Structure formats: C-alpha cells, structure tokens
Amino acid sequence: MYLTYDQYEEYGGTLDETTFNQLEFEARAVIDWWTFNRLHRETEYSEAVTRCMYKLISLIAEKQQAMIVDATPSESNTSVRAGIASESNDGVSTTYNTLSAKEAVDAMGTELQTTVRMYLTGIYNSLGQNLLYRGLYPNE
C-alpha cells in the first residue's frame, strides 16, 4: 500500500475507508504499470509517491461520481454524461455533454497518465532506479 488511509485523511481526503481501499488498489495498479513494479520492494515511499496516489484516488473517485453509463461499453450507442453543456431557465431546457464510453475511458486514461508523469518524473527508488524509466535495469 503506497498510501495509508491515515495519510489520505491528512492530505484532506473525504472518502470512507472501504471506498478508499477499493480506489487505492486501482491507483496502485496504475502506478505499478507505469513504474514496472519498481516500488514493490520499497518499505517507505517518498512524498511524490504518496501525493501521486492521493491525486489518482481523487481522480478515479471524481470520474466514478461524474459519469453515468447508459449501457455496456461494448455497444456502439453507449454514452456517458459528464456534465451539463447548457441550460435555459424559462423553457427549462438542459443539454448534457455526452461522450462515447470509449472517449470517456480514453480521457480518464490520459488524465491518469499525465498525473503519474507529473508527480513521478525524476523520482528514484531506493535502488537508484528511475521510476518512469521505460527500459529494464539489470536484474529486473
């Protein structure tokens, strides 16, 4: 676990512990994928790692709350409502931004990728390995 629930609360997190544990697992999987699991052997994590986890958890939670999926993602007519595009008061008309499920998933992936790169660029583990180095170090 790269971020404990106590640390999450210290950073200002408001999720309950059960929800946090579910989202922490997802956020950790994102970091592990981008870092080739270079944090698995660590016992202590830098502030950059814990803050990155906090941000990823917040992003995943926001996306889950903001998106309403109308059907399964495999269907071509699937859309996600990600917010109100326009409203009118007198005629009571509301228009929503809609994205295909694929567009919404791609947008979330891009945002998660940007977050990982922003927080972990230039950060090394205790073995001196750059976390975001896309090659392999000896003994990996």
Indicate the proportion of strand residues: 5-15%
Q: Count all strands and give the number.
A: 3
Termini Cα gap? 21 Å
Task: Assign an overall shape.
Answer: elongated
| Quaternary structure type | single chain
Helix content: 40-55%
What is the residue-mean pLDDT, rounded to a whole number?
83
Q: Using only CA atoms, what is the Rg?
A: 18 Å
Instruction: Identify low-pLDDT runs.
Output: 70-81
Order of helix and strand elements from N to C terminus? HHHEEEH
Secondary structure tally, helices: 4
Strand order, sheet with most strands? 1-2-3
Broad structural category: alpha+beta
Largest sheet composition? 3 strands, antiparallel
Keyword list:
alpha+beta; 140 residues; 3-stranded antiparallel beta sheet
Describe the structure.
By secondary structure, this protein is α+β, with helices and mostly antiparallel strands. The chain has a domain at 5-66 and 104-120. Helix content is 46%, strand content 14%. The protein contains four helices and three strands. The protein has helices spanning 5-10, 17-35, 47-66, 101-120; strands spanning 68-69, 79-88, 93-100. A three-stranded antiparallel sheet has the order 1-2-3. Helix 3 runs antiparallel to helix 4 (101-120). The longest helix is centred in the middle third of the chain and has 20 residues, at 47-66. Residues 70-81 have low confidence and may be disordered.
